[in-house]
Amino acid sequence: MQNTTYESIKQVIKQRRAVFPPSYTGQEIPKSLLIELLECANTAPTHKLTQPWRFIVFRENGLAKLANQLAEQYKTYTPSEQFLQKKYENTREKVLQSGAVIAISVFYSDALPRWEELAATACAVQNLWLAAAAAGIGGYWSSPGTVKYMGDFLTLAANEECLGFFYMGYHDEPAREASRKSILEKIRWEE
């Protein structure tokens, strides 16, 4: 007998893809669902239960604030000879096309090596991503070069670092599996 929970989880994992804002439908993501998705993120594994992940959710009017901030940072920190007006506009537009954008940060406890806190935060984002995919919400994790300048805007603590943004939106893209090399090429057995 097949375990339906296993089969469902396996399907969600295999069909989770990056889905970008131009594919979002504009349908609002209810705040209650965002909380449920973040509760899934909150169940990530964490050494010594430091739970280093932190999230700031931008939705509704908050999206415009974030869009303006990211665009202005791009303009401020990009050398004039590399600045592209189209990228400036796209930086704003992809935020405004989203149902929500979540700033992802890590809170370093100093109880563990930083890589462990980063790994735990990445696990939390993966949980969020899988839960969102199962709910029919597309997303992707973006870490623009200007992310290092977000501390003041996000009012981060001295021992907190922004790792990027998780863009989210309902979409109508068909489900598809990952294009990956065979796992057999990535395993070495010691038996």
Tell me what the structure shows.
The structure is a single chain. The chain has 191 residues and is of the alpha+beta class. It has helices at 4-15, 31-41, 61-77, 85-96, 114-134, 151-154; strands spanning 53-58, 100-107, 137-142, 160-170. It has six helices and four strands. It has a four-stranded antiparallel beta sheet with strand order 1-2-4-3. It is globular and about 55 Å long.
Task: Summarize it.
With 191 residues, the chain is an alpha+beta fold.
Number of strands: 4
Enumerate the spans where pLDDT stays under 50 for 5 or more consecutive residues: none
Give the topology string: H per helix, E per strand.
HHEHHEHEHE
Mean pLDDT: 95
Count of distinct structural domains:
1
Major sheet: arrangement of strands:
1-2-4-3
Key features?
191 residues; alpha+beta; four-stranded antiparallel β-sheet; globular
Furnish the topology, listing elements before pairings.
Elements: H1 4-15, H2 31-41, E1 53-58, H3 61-77, H4 85-96, E2 100-107, H5 114-134, E3 137-142, H6 151-154, E4 160-170
Antiparallel strand pairs: 1-2, 2-4, 3-4
Helix pairs in contact: 2-5, 3-4
